[in-house]
Amino acid sequence: MAVHLLYDPAFLKHDTGVMHYENAHRLECILKALNADKFLNGKLQRRSPRAATEQDLLRCHDAEMIHAIQAYIERGGSQLDSDTAVSAESFNVACLAAGAAMTAVDAVMAEEGGRAFALIRPPGHHATPHKPMGFCLFNHAAIAARYAQAVHGINTVLIIDWDVHHGNGTQDIFWKDKTVFYFSTHQSPHYPGTGARDEAGDGAGTGFTLNIPLPARTSATAHREVFRAALKDIESRFHPDLVIISAGFDAHRDDPLGNLMLEDTDFAEMTKDALRIAETHSRGRVVSLLEGGYNLDLLGGSVQSHLNALL
């Protein structure tokens, strides 16, 4: 199957400052690693993303939030909160990142199917229905899931989030929804303080959220074992038509913003675990979206391992 790469140089224009962990150098180091891998480079099908419209954003975020972010940036604001820096181009870049997630859905929903990776920033999984936070303006994984359902007629979506931080925004958006299963492994206690094991959804969505909080320094072996066991449990009761990965590489053992112990080989094996479900239930269709990952010396190699596994 093809692996589609969604990228636009405009993602570098979200200027957070060189001292901010979430800066443009993250994408530059990934691109450098991909360009150095001739085999992988030859297998990637590059596609240009389009921007999400307000209608696309409204499937997951309320209008007041969208308009407030846009107005704040237009007034020259630079900090949506203590963590979330913005610049003049940030609203448009965030819309393009959300649109890249949707374009990735279009790519894998084509007749030949496939996998897609969106090399995007800012990240998205902390953005709730009502507010941006944690470096995130809009929730790209959620927007992609809702787009797949609204435009492509997809019924069920599995979102797998292995970022070191819990994706509180994604959980909130689908808290009462049984058509989107949200599964997260993450360090706990850690930012943003959510993602306890007993957070399992509500109403019709009860049982369609699964959190696996892991203490700092959990071994990679134990981490992988609980990840694989959880996916087997999910598959026994939920058959997704599409798999979306919130691919955060800050669970790497040497990332400055986390204390988990994964290495590149672990990300590759977790990718293969996700693919097994996709190959069984969703014709191999997987959309992967870059979330965290802040060690600039290692991030390119982690993404490289992930993409080679997607192949």
Give a brief description.
The protein is of the alpha/beta class and 311 residues long.
Molecular structure report:
The protein has 311 residues and is α/β, with parallel strands linked by helices. It has a single domain (3-310), classed as Arginase, Chain A. Helices cover 39% and strands 14% of the residues. The protein has an eight-stranded parallel beta sheet, with helices on both faces. Helix 5 crosses helix 6 (140-152) and helix 9 (264-281) packs parallel to helix 10.
The amount of helix comes to 25-40%
Count helical runs: 10
Order of helices and strands: EHHEHHHEHEHEEHEHEH
Architecture (CATH level 2) name:
3-Layer(aba) Sandwich
Question: Main β-sheet: number of strands, strand sense, barrel status?
Answer: 8 strands, parallel
What is the CATH superfamily label?
Histone deacetylase domain
> In total, how many beta strands?
8
Number of domains: 1
As residue ranges, the low-confidence spans are: none
- End-to-end separation in angstroms reads 7 Å
Strand order of the largest sheet: 2-1-3-8-7-4-5-6
**Structural class, judged by helices and strands?**
alpha/beta
Output the CATH class name: Alpha Beta
Shape: globular
CATH fold-level assignment: Arginase, Chain A
Mean pLDDT: 97
Please state the CA-atom Rg, rounded to the nearest Å: 17 Å
Q: What fraction strand? A: 5-15%
